[in-house]
Amino acid sequence: MKKTIVTILSALVVLLFTGTVMAGAVDSLRLGQPLDDNAKEPMKKKPLVVKGGIERSYKQQPPVVPHKIDKDEINLKVNTCMNCHSEKTYESKKAPKVGDSHYVTRDGKVQETISSRRYFCNQCHAPQVTADPLVENTFEGAK
């Protein structure tokens, strides 16, 4: 009985130290930079510009932004996205129109202007950049 307990304890000690050594080999996306250091400033990536838009990965996905937005302004007073995507201008600018769902309040009432909960476009519609993935990714969207 004592031999069994000693054997089990020995095995646990070995596993504990092996696990600790192996855990030290794991690297984060910070590439070895200590957690208490300030993060390095990320490299600037070029915006991905795709004429005609980018295909969605699944049915209810908000469309991603296929153009530069670095000079666009979205704040409480101004939303420059609407210069091209509003119901009045989308045809002349050859841009997709803002979805009808963006004019509906949380109570289901249809408004003449964009609902305040849909006003900040870039909270759902993300611009894309030309960059390699940070980690290997085998995700395939719904076809």
Written description of the protein model:
By secondary structure, this protein is mostly helical. The chain has a domain at 44-131: Flavocytochrome C3, Chain A (Flavocytochrome C3, Chain A, domain 2, Orthogonal Bundle). It contains three helices and no strands.
Question: Layout of SSEs?
Answer:
Layout (H helix, E strand, L loop, with lengths): L1 H23 L57 H4 L4 H4 L50
**Rg estimate, integer Å:** 25 Å
Q: Sum up the overall morphology in one term.
A: elongated
Span of the ends, CA to CA: 61 Å
Question: Which whole number gives the mean pLDDT?
Answer: 85
Count of alpha/pi helices: 3
Structural class: mainly alpha
Strand and helix order: HHH
DSSP E strands, number = 0
- Taking pLDDT < 50 over at least 5 consecutive residues as the criterion, the unreliable ranges are none
**Share of β-strand residues:** under 5%
Main sheet attributes: strand count, strand direction, barrel closure: none
Architecture of the domain at 44-131, according to CATH?
Answer: Orthogonal Bundle
User: Can you give the helix content as a percent range?
Assistant: 10-25%
CATH topology of the domain at 44-131: Flavocytochrome C3, Chain A, domain 2
Highest-level CATH class of the domain at 44-131? Mainly Alpha
